[in-house]
Design a protein that fits this description.
Helix 1 (about 15-30) runs parallel beside helix 3. The chain has one domain: Hypothetical Protein Ychn, Chain: A, CATH 3.40.1260.10. The model has no long low-confidence stretch (mean pLDDT about 90). It is globular. Strands 4-3-2-1-5 form a five-stranded parallel β-sheet, sandwiched between helices. The protein is α/β, with parallel strands linked by helices. The chain is built from five helices and five strands.
């Protein structure tokens, strides 16, 4: 069995990096590997519970019709995928980043940590993937 450590920095909806890393983590869990995510900078908002969908006035669709994907739902889905596949999945939000952004109300699963937790995960994994903002 192997493990992957992921550092992600992009906030929700700012780039394709976020959706791509969610797909990569999901695939990694389904293939039988453990994953630790360290959400740093804007990525600390990915698991923010109060996220809401919205209508699309340009298309004339309601919130229900639009079915806007929310990053918090993806995070919850990754925890479910880990459980279904008997894998260990950790999501660590950088506490300093959370405090700066006021995004401390999370879906179930994520925990608060600091840069030292990323270093610990780095030292205890087989591979590390850094998803930088640039």
């Amino acid at each position: 069995m192997s493990s992957l450590n992921v550092l992600i920095m992009d906030p929700p909806y700012e780039s394709a990096n976020t959706a791509t890393v969610f797909r990569m983590i999901d695939s990694t869990l389904r293939k039988g590997h453990d994953v630790t995510v360290f959400a740093y900078e804007g990525a600390a908002a990915l698991s923010f519970k109060p996220q809401k969908g919205h209508p699309n006035p340009v298309k004339g669709t309601s919130e229900e019709e639009e079915k806007h994907p929310l990053s918090k739902d993806f995070v919850e889905g990754l925890f479910a995928t880990a459980r279904e596949n008997g894998r260990e999945f950790k999501w660590i939000n950088c506490g300093l980043c959370v405090d700066e952004r006021g995004v401390g109300d999370w879906v179930e699963g994520p925990v608060r940590g600091g840069p030292q937790h990323f270093v610990e995960a780095f030292n205890n994994c087989d591979k590390t993937l850094v998803i930088a903002t640039r």
